[in-house]
Write a structure and sequence with these properties.
The complex is a heterodimer of chains A (about 325) and B (about 260). Chain A is an alpha/beta fold and about 325 residues long. Chain A has 11 helices and 14 strands. The C terminus of chain A is likely disordered. Classes of the chains: A alpha/beta (about 325), B mainly alpha (about 260). At the A-B interface, helix 2 and helix 3 of A face helix 1 and helix 5 of B.
């Protein structure tokens, strides 16, 4: 549905987007992930024909953004970072206006307005001035205007920014619900959002593509070796960490044992094992035989957060560490 | 063209939903009303004096009231035009709604023409106020309507030219006040450029005074359609809208 090849955007002094290539298949939800200022908005603006690329090509639904912008625009619904609303208009009036801009008319237009009001749960504010709506409603009106002409591709720039947790959840559910009919690209700097809503993730940092893969693969890839978290408590008195560590290291298949946390009677270890070796049973047995209590034993899935930091830090470590912005949790 | 009409309707909506249109209409109505009242009072007193002196010069409503008043309208218009155009693009740029327009399947030209048309319609509403005053002349006197109609045509052409310039200036900034002030400055300059012809006859002075929008209005005020003047206004309209289109395009490459 979307094919991007070596897309580049240069401004006078800076390169905002540097030779990014990726593809998005039909019906997918793709998360566009990166710290603030990574080039997410610029990329989206190029996809929506708002900005022309300096080099490279981008095709949406088979149409080039530079050569056939009108055809691309017909097939795209776009929600910019702040919803593009006219405060002096009423909700229904605004949706009708946008619908007409996108080429709807007559009964069709009426039906679509009803439909998107229903779908985005804004039917109760149809007659209200947009300027008086709360942030959550405005965001949903923004989403409604993006889907009014039933576009093939939806491009959403930080659709949950500035919402409260309940609204964030509602918006995510709404977006997930839209996935079947539309191909969705959403940008965010919130990692859990990608984990929850997206199938596919594209990570960019400082205008460069860092990784593009499915969420699950990415987790597996970053983990590399299998690893397990083990929490152990001493049955009586102090727990001798070095002894426990030594004992765990002797379990066959274990390649590395790290002590992550240590209290008086408890300690948490991260045990890495060679790929494909199931060591959990042996670990449990070793702990019990050593005369300790096994409090917890679980596979350590790396969160996207860690993957992200790992990936972006690898990138920037070579150059300059201080400029890498900390992503918000 | 359908798209331009959609944009035009939306712009008119925001003029008339907000107080802008009503404020402009009220101010314009008051100011023009005062001018009209003055002109009429002067006309009546002059007429009485003539009768008392026993002179019977023919008094002419067209020459003595309509023509100077139309010239006044064209000058008052200079002050109102910046207020009409300043928000056209500047506001959309500030609130980000320009992204909606630019990513909808519209041509830039349709957006520009739509907005300019809306400004023209609002200006025509202002002119309707003056027509209300002139209607009294027709009730109590019998002026010739043709020069008046031509005068209005001239006013519309002149306003079209200035509104096109204002629209262009509005694309250059996000700040409405800057857009308004710059448009006002340009309008004022285009008015006073004519003054150089008062003391200088060199080519540069003639060029400058030719550029003045006011010089080209004189023939219309007299009730004459001079094709030279009409062409001047139409050219400025086209140039203004053309530069607006170029400016919108450059906005994409720059921003």
């Amino acid at each position: 549905m979307i094919t991007v090849k070596e897309l580049t955007k240069r401004y006078a002094r800076t390169v905002a987007v540097d030779q990014i290539s990726f593809e998005v298949a039909k019906g997918q939800i793709v998360g566009f992930l990166g710290p603030n200022g990574a080039g997410k908005t610029t990329t989206m603006r190029m996809l929506t024909c708002f900005l022309p690329p300096s080099a490279g090509t981008a095709k949406v639904a088979g149409f080039d953004v530079l050569e056939q912008p009108l055809e691309v625009k017909k097939r795209i619904g776009y929600l910019p970072e702040s919803p593009p609303i006219y405060p002096e208009m009423e909700t229904a009036e605004y949706l009708k206006f946008v619908g007409k801009l996108k080429g709807l008319s007559g009964g069709d237009l009426q039906k679509r307005v009803e439909y998107v009001c229903d779908r985005c749960a804004i039917a109760d504010v149809k007659k209200k001035l947009l300027g008086k709506l709360s942030k959550g409603y405005r965001q949903r009106v923004g989403l409604a205007q993006a889907i009014i002409h039933n576009p093939d591709v939806l491009i959403l720039d930080e659709p949950t920014a500035g919402l409260d947790p309940k609204q964030i959840n509602e918006t995510r559910e709404l977006i997930k619900g839209l996935a079947g009919d539309h191909t969705i690209v959403l940008s965010t700097h919130i990692l859990s959002e990608v984990e929850q809503t997206c199938e596919q993730v594209i990570i960019i940092n400082k205008g460069k593509l860092v990784a593009t893969d499915s969420v699950r693969n990415l987790q597996a890839r970053a983990r590399g070796a299998e690893s397990v978290v083990v929490e152990i408590a001493g049955r009586s008195g102090r727990l001798e960490v070095p002894i426990v560590q030594h004992k765990l290291e002797q379990v066959s298949g274990v390649s590395r044992v790290l002590c992550r946390q240590q209290a008086d009677r408890r300690a948490v270890f991260e045990v890495e094992s060679q790929k494909g070796r199931l060591v959990r049973g042996d670990l449990a047995r070793a702990v019990v035989q050593g005369g300790w209590d096994l409090n917890e034993l679980r596979p350590a899935a790396m969160s996207l957060e860690e993957i992200f930091l790992q990936l972006t830090e690898n990138e920037s470590a070579e150059k300059d560490k201080t400029t890498a912005k900390e992503p918000q949790p | 063209m359908r798209n331009a009409w959609i944009i035009c309707r939306k712009e008119l909506g925001s003029y008339f939903v907000s107080p802008i249109a009503y404020l402009l209409l009220t101010m314009f109505g008051l100011i023009f009303g005062f001018f009209f009242w003055n002109a009429l009072a002067y006309f009546v007193i002059e007429g009485m004096e003539m009768q008392m002196r026993g002179q019977m010069f023919p008094m002419n409503l067209n020459e003595q009231i309509i023509r100077p008043l139309l010239s006044n309208v064209s000058v008052i218009g200079l002050f109102f035009i910046p207020m009409i155009t300043m928000r056209l693009f500047a506001e959309e740029k500030r609130t980000g709604t320009i992204e909606l327009l630019a990513t909808s399947p519209l041509r830039d030209l349709e957006i520009i023409v739509g907005k300019w048309l809306a400004a023209m319609v609002l200006y025509s509403c202002l002119l309707l106020f003056t027509a209300l005053n002139f209607a009294f002349l027709f009730k109590y006197g019998n002026p010739d309507w043709k020069p008046l109609a031509i005068g209005y045509l001239g006013l519309l052409l002149q306003a079209g030219a200035l509104l096109a310039i204002g629209t262009f200036i509005s694309t250059l900034t996000k700040n409405q006040i800057i857009a308004g002030a710059a448009t006002f400055g340009v309008c004022l300059l285009l008015w006073v450029l004519e003054w150089v012809s008062g003391y200088e006859t060199a080519t540069w002075a003639r060029v400058l005074s030719y550029l003045s929008v006011i010089t080209h209005f004189e023939s219309f005020a007299r009730g004459v359609v001079d094709s030279k003047d009409a062409v001047f206004y139409v050219t400025v309209i086209f140039l203004g809208l053309f530069f607006t289109a170029r400016s919108m395009e450059s906005l994409r490459w720059r921003s």
